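Objective 1.3, modelling of assemblies. Example input:
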Amino acid sequence: MKSVVVNGYGTIGKRVADAVSAQDDLKIIGVSKTKPDFEARMAVEKGYDLYISFPEREKLFHDAGIEISGTVDEMLEKADIVVDCTPGGVGAKNLAQYKDLGLKAIFQGGEKHEDIGLSFNAFANYSDSFGQDYVRVVSCNTTGLTRTLKPINDLCGIKKVRAVMVRRGGDPHQINVGPLNSIVPNPPTVPSHHGPDLQTVMYDININTVALLVPTTLMHQHNLMVELENQVEVEEIIKKLEDTSRVMLVKANEGLGSTAEIMEYAKELGRSRNDLFEIPVWQESLNITEGELYYMQAVHQESNVVPENVDAIRALLEMEEDPEKTVQKTNKAMGIL
Ligand SMILES: NC(=O)c1ccc[n+]([C@@H]2O[C@H](COP(=O)([O-])OP(=O)(O)OC[C@H]3O[C@@H](n4cnc5c(N)ncnc54)[C@H](OP(=O)(O)O)[C@@H]3O)[C@@H](O)[C@H]2O)c1
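Predicted structure (tokens):
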């Protein structure tokens, strides 16, 4: 049983903590917060030992009646590995401390690939992280692209990908982000960072991406145009995606024609926080015209990277050499389809 700590118990961190707790070979021995808010209170109510990032704030937690177990420095001393889920840019700053402690660490997609040196997706490049000290789980959008492009590349080869990424303006709880009433080319230049980011885990993929921000909080949505190396039928692509872990085919004509309806479906699954770890692909959108595959998919940004964080722990700690086995183990414990 390996001891894991989560530095930054926010949108991603609280989900990673629960996903790790569900595994029979890993245990959470601490999570961290800077503020004594409801998430801090609930972490303690759930049974997590809570540590504070800024020792001078101890009194704030005390006054709020939230029990703390110590400081982040103390938490890190006890761990086999830390999953850093602090806001983008903070993780890279924390790296020096982890290095001083000789502590292995997993970072999130808000960090720059260059700052961490190695990026991770369980399906694309698991073995490159095996036994390494530091790795960055690629962002929610890049994880979404990898989940479907990797199996398609395995099936028939990919000459070139063009993707239009429609990105949510913020997460559902975020009250100060937007846009509120606009469609924003973001960036207005080509390529967006998503194509180059995909190349940090699918090294040889030829891809160009453009991205927009829109006033929604539920999911991202991707539109892909994929020039195929070898000719295949749409049915073969469908079969391949059906057989691919953490990908699901959904049908618009079954009432799942939008991100809102897909999130309603996620509620019906009855998982904690209504999470949808899988990438839903609209079956009707899969078409091949003149050797080019078209499809549309969505990404539940709050949760899709969570299983990959669990896989990354097993890779760094050399707990399982075979990516398929760790994916299966993670999936089973998390109830992933
Ligand atoms: N949200 C998404 O859609 C999403 C998807 C995929 C990847 N990511 C990536 O995951 C990472 C975390 O994002 P998030 O959305 O989970 O952020 P978040 O909800 O803002 O959570 C960040 C957590 O870090 C803590 N924190 C804030 N400032 C800190 C500091 N200076 N030192 C230590 N801890 C600090 C916060 O504690 P307090 O709340 O107590 O301040 C909070 O627990 C980022 O790299 C992000 O790009 C996010």
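The chain has two domains: 2-138+305-334, 140-299.
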